[in-house]
Amino acid sequence: MLAFLAALTLVSGQQNEVTTVAVRPSQTDPEIRTFDDPHYLMVDRSIVVGHDSSKPADRHQLLLWLTGTDGKGNEIKGFGRVAAELGYHVISLMYPDDVAAAACDNNLDPTSFETFRMAIIRGGQARANPRVSISIAPHESIESRLTMLLRFIRSRRPREDWGQFLNSDGSIRWSSVAVAGQSQGGGHAALIGIKQKVARVICFGAPKDFSQRLGAPAAWYSEASATPKDRFFAFNHHQDPKGCTPQELWANLTALGLISNGSVAEVDSASPPYGHRRSLYTSYPLVTVEGQNSPGAMVSHSSAIHPQNAARWHDAWTYLLTEPTTP
Questions:
Q1: Which of 43-52, 139-148, 293-302 has the highest mean predicted lDDT (pLDDT)?
Q2: What is the DSSP letter of 231?
Q3: Rounded CA gap, 133 and 125, in Å?
Q4: Domains along the chain?
Q5: Of 10, 292, 320, 322, which one has the fewest beta carbons inside 10 Å?
Q6: Which residues pair with 298 in a beta bridge?
Q7: CA 162, 165, 166, 167 torsion: positive or negative?
Q8: Helix, strand, or coil (residue 22)
Q9: What is the DSSP letter of 316?
């Protein structure tokens, strides 16, 4: 009982029916010894437990959120609340996120970005450049952490039915998972969508894998995709300086098939359904925050996911989470 109480921390109570719970990764798997800041779970219990007919139906889909480099998942609170109110189960997953994929920028190997990301997604080793390499144990990976969290929470909050996102053998039921993320996390989300057939992919401030050495988008954008491309979405800022230039990001989105005929939706002047575009853009002022690795240094981030803009982006976020896709 004490372990259970230590593992599950009610963060926000049941404000507006959305319950937020924090779970430390090490509580779900004793082999996890790094990156032990909490996972966050969000669910509107009036939808998934109470079946309130005045609200959207339970989507029976998990929104998996992957934060950006050095993130702690706090940016999910605005977007995550919107998702929960739309009937999603929401998880913001803590994972090894201290090395940016941009470390591969000058690697001559066109597959270096994919190798780097797959080491984080499934476990493995990758050399980003002569000075930077990573080694992620399988139990520290994104897939293992998500699996163990779902197994852990299904028995502790059974009425919320977290177990529906696991197959009978205890593996992740990817077909019921919408994967989303910011910056590095957005790149992971897109690559997971390439490798697994998921319900939806949403990239914020991403994907940023552009090879400076080769002068081209990462090779994995052009791979055959397990997820139909009409299930991929992106929301970016025209002046976002992080990871690659705005022009390089545009090239990445084009290579991934998210910009057709050079056209995107400008959310500052358009309204949903944005011509059913898969790429949304804004020029709304960037958000300036203190750098997490450099106290006192102020850095700019895209405003497209920042919780301070939750009211501004409510309709855009709703579109990204609900726009119909192929069955």
A1: 139-148
A2: G
A3: 7
A4: 2-320 (3.40.50.1820)
A5: 10
A6: 290
A7: positive
A8: strand
A9: H
Is 76 in a helix, a strand, or coil? helix
Tokens of 234: 């992106």
Res. 298: pLDDT tops 60: no
What sign does the dihedral 101-103-108-109 (CA atoms) show?
negative
Other beta carbons within 10 Å of 257: 15
- Residues 204, 305 contacting (CB under 8 angstroms): yes
State both tokens at 127: 């050399």
Beta carbons of 267 and 311 less than 8 angstroms apart: no
Query: What Rg value do the Cα atoms of the chain yield, rounded?
Result: 19
Q: What is the pLDDT of residues 54-80, one digit of tens each?
A: 899 999 999 999 999 999 887 788 999
Instruction: Print burial letters for 172-209: b (CB count within 10 Å at least 16), e (below 16).
Output: bbbebbbbbbbbbbbbbbbbbbbbbebbbbbbbbbbbb
Q: How far is CA 298 from the centre of its chain?
A: 24
For the stretch 175-200, pLDDT in tens is 999 999 999 999 999 999 999 999 99
Distance of alpha carbon 101 from alpha carbon 69, whole angstroms:
9
Q: Is this prediction's pTM over 0.70?
A: yes
Q: How many CA atoms lie within 13 A of 298 on its CB side?
A: 4
Rounded distance between C-alpha atoms, residue 15 and residue 161, angstroms: 20
Is residue 64 packed enough to be buried (19+ CB in 10 Å), middle (13-18) or exposed (0-12)?
Answer: buried
HSE toward the beta carbon, residue 93, CA cutoff 13 A:
30
In the predicted model, is pLDDT for residue 15 greater than 70? Answer: no
- Across-strand partners of 241? none
Q: How far apart are the first and last CA of the chain?
A: 42
The predicted pLDDT at position 3 comes to 40
Within 10 angstroms of residue 273's Cβ, the number of other Cβ atoms is 13
What pLDDT is stored for residue 13 in this prediction? 46
Distance set, CA 135 to CA 36, 121, 132, 240 (Å): 17, 12, 10, 29
Is the confidence at residue 325, as pLDDT, over 80? yes
Sole residue written with tokens 């929301």? 235
